[in-house]
Specification:
Oligomer: homodimer
Largest sheet of chain A: 3 strands, antiparallel
Strand content of chain A: 15-25%
Structural class of chain A: alpha+beta
Helix content of chain A: 55-70%
Chain lengths: 88, 88
DNA sequence: TCATCAATTAGACGGTCATCGAAATATCAA
DNA sequence: TTGATATTTCGATGACCGTCTAATTGATGA
């Protein structure tokens, strides 16, 4: 993992709401965007923004199926991030 | 570790420079504030600000000795933070 | 006591970011 | 095709944050 991605992930985790979103994605094997919105009191635009940040950070994969977008944690990347932190 | 501290730490790590500072503190057993300033091209005020953030997050301890301030990583807190992240 | 050095605080500035509503895009169903 | 639903994009707004200089506090040594 290069330094850029490391900092992108750190920044992605820094917002409490976004971290909660990531937690929920991690908890399910795969979850749909519209499902998420039931659980957080934010607009669709804001949710879309957060998912984009998580995607840019490389933390999740998006898969479009019909009208819906499904999200999945990239566990390999997450593990790499943790092992970077462990080096401290 | 309560949620507030967890988010304070996440935010503290989100700034690249501040994370570098933390890394350096972690690398030494104990380091002085004025030593740090040799290694980062920032003003004393900015360094002081970052150290305050790290302290507020509970990540480091400050010990004042004469004119100098010495810093130390609170390894127990760091470990707790990592174990929180591991739960994801 | 006074000058010097370490560190903090105060205040300001510019940039970044979470958030929203509105508009646009895409897909499906009738 | 038309309407409905899911999602993204755009543009704006208000808050937060990293950084600085200048002023302040606190401690040292001449």
């Amino acid at each position: 993992m290069d330094e850029k991605q490391f900092h992108q992930i750190s920044k992605a985790l820094a917002d409490p709401r976004r971290f909660e979103i990531l937690k929920r994605i991690a908890a399910e094997d795969e979850i749909a965007c519209s499902d998420m919105r039931c659980h957080f009191p934010i607009s669709a635009a804001t949710m879309s923004h957060h998912l984009k940040e998580l995607t840019n950070a490389g933390l999740i994969d998006l898969r479009k199926e019909a009208k819906f977008v499904h999200m999945k944690l990239r566990r390999k990347v997450w593990k790499e991030y943790l092992s970077q932190l462990n080096k401290l």
